[in-house]
Specification:
Elements: H1 3-22, E1 26-30, H2 33-43, E2 49-52, H3 56-60, H4 63-69, E3 73-74, H5 83-91, E4 95-98, E5 102-104, E6 109-113, H6 117-123, E7 128-134, E8 138-139, H7 142-160, H8 166-170, E9 185-189, E10 198-203
Parallel strand pairs: 1-10, 2-3, 2-4, 4-7, 5-8, 7-10
Antiparallel strand pairs: 5-6, 6-9
Amino acid sequence: MDPNITKRNELLAQKVIKGLQSRNMSGYYAATREEALKIALSLIETGSSVTMGGALSAHEIGLVDAVKAGDYRFIDRGAYADKRQAMLDAYDADWFLSSVNAMTEDGVLVNIDGNANRVSAIAQGPKHVLFIVGMNKVTSDIDGAMKRARNVAAPTNAQRFGLNTPCAKTGACMNCKSPDTICCQFLITRFSRHRDRIHVILVNDNLGF
């Protein structure tokens, strides 16, 4: 990555981390994907139960493969015939891996969900939540974060999953009520009641959507 962009990302990340700390959440900065993986594995205790939502960013830094290959109990929802049971087991996990659709410079996290299994686990259940966040997802304020979530993340995911939504065709949010809509639940996390539950690793890279 261009050294000037890296310097900008490093400075911005420090601002975001201070914002997270003021909200009872923990933030970390990783200059590379490899460094992000090391930080993540240093946080997740050996023997922990680990599960995840649809976190492409966690895949991109190699975290999912590392957890599956390591001394952890990975709760793989894809291996469950009973999807409801997979979700219930996820709520009792030690660690839930996720990313954000967008976040603000002062540490507010924004997520949109269709089935709500991801946003519900972020809000309550798993003992710890670990977000892997590329610096491309940081916006100046809540308005910018919501616009990014609805006009970048949601249309891209709708296209990725082959959904029949207006945004999949136009590339922008149409505020639809389509049966396929993935914009069913909006979660804004502005404070964590429980210190040391939410951890955010900011990565000097473009990750996810």
